[in-house]
Amino acid sequence: MIIFFVIQCILLKFFFEKGNKRFEFSKWKIIRIEMNILAPLSFAVIFLLFQILIMLMKNAELISLIEDQQSFAYYSLALRISEPMGYISEWLREMQIPLLYWGGHMATHLPGYPLMIHVAFQVFGEHSYSVMYLVSVLSALTIFPIFWISNLIYGWRVAVLSCVLYSWVPSLMLNFPYMDLILGFFVCLSILFFLHSFRTQNKVMSLIGGVILSLCIFMSYVSASILVMVLIFTIFSGESKKIINSLFYFLGTVIPYMILEIVIGWPIIQATLSAHRTNSWFYWHLHSLNPLVWNIGHSTLFFFMFIGLPICILFFIALIRSLRYFFHEHEDSTFVLSFAAVLFITILFAKLELARVASFLIPFIVIITSGEIMKWKNEDSLVTHSILLTIAQFIVFLVHVSQVDLYSYMLGYPIV
Questions:
Q1: What is the pTM of this model?
Q2: Residue 27: Cβ-neighbour burial (10 angstroms; 0-12, 13-18, 19+)
Q3: Banded pLDDT at 253 (limits 50, 70, 90)
Q4: pLDDT tens per residue across span 111-127
Q5: In whole angstroms, what is the distance from residue 309 CA to residue 49 CA?
Q6: How far apart are CA 69 and CA 78, in angstroms?
Q7: Which is higher by pLDDT, 236 or 168?
Q8: Which of 85, 213, 395, 403 is the most exposed place for a label (fewest CB within 10 A)?
Q9: Contact predicate 283/412, CB 8 Å
Q10: By C-alpha distance, which of 167, 122, 117, 135 is closest to 6?
């Protein structure tokens, strides 16, 4: 673990100094790699290797968790899929009687996660390792959209620091191999397409971003809160002509469901409303059984705690700073405040198990935190400050991952 950390710090310093220039191998000058590919690729490979190491060390415990139908129902549900279209249709119909058919908590989700595991079966084989491979690969690939979003909003150095900090968020390791972790990749990719369309006025990019978000909603309908971020970002961007980009993004999100509802006849809207009602029922039911564990305050506390204190402190500093510049039309301040609205809505609607359910928001918190560091005035000490922040976050990471048994008891679900 320490070896991975040291390598990251060396790469952090290297990419800070090298900047966004094409990298040439000294012996083969014809071999050139764009730095905006090389930088995220380097950190993604390190992150993936670290995940593989964890898989090797915790192999038996991870398999036991995945194959436990009470703790990880998605895997057992994915094993039932023989014909995906028929499976989805059956799931959506039976969600109208959720507690009888599914036995409880599965009624709060659309069938996206089991379908993703089914896709992983086709690639990696029909076994529990497929879940681990799927989650680890997509978690590592999330570094690419994190890097490019950071570079668009804040610049090169923020992009590099974001990749490093993302690797040491305790929540990502404590919640491995839960399927909620894969959502971050798709949400970040969706926002990346939207932001790129905002800069280039390419409406097709907005449409693609919306379609990707529709896939996210099919996995977790709470991710629909991202639409609020897009709306606020557009309204306060100060450019009314770019509203059309948001319109295309919204169309990309809605049209797939309209087609599925009207043409194929899937009861998407009814199923989503049913999921929301069942989720609310579960909250109050579990809250009545054990109000100390199952309450929104407890869940929110663990969400922020598992991100890590250094990142959280800087995130709230960035939020306060952005409130001060709210009427000055700074793009980064608009980005922070629009995300804060999404965070609030997600907490309000998800309520329980936010440490897992809201994990798709972690990349944005990391990006905003990294952006705050880069606003410090002394350019000469940016590398030092960045490394010190990373060290602090790494120490917090070690503390959290050493307390998995305690957290399993306090959270109400198993952590490996």
A1: 0.92
A2: exposed
A3: very high
A4: 889 999 999 999 998 89
A5: 25
A6: 11
A7: 168
A8: 85
A9: no
A10: 167
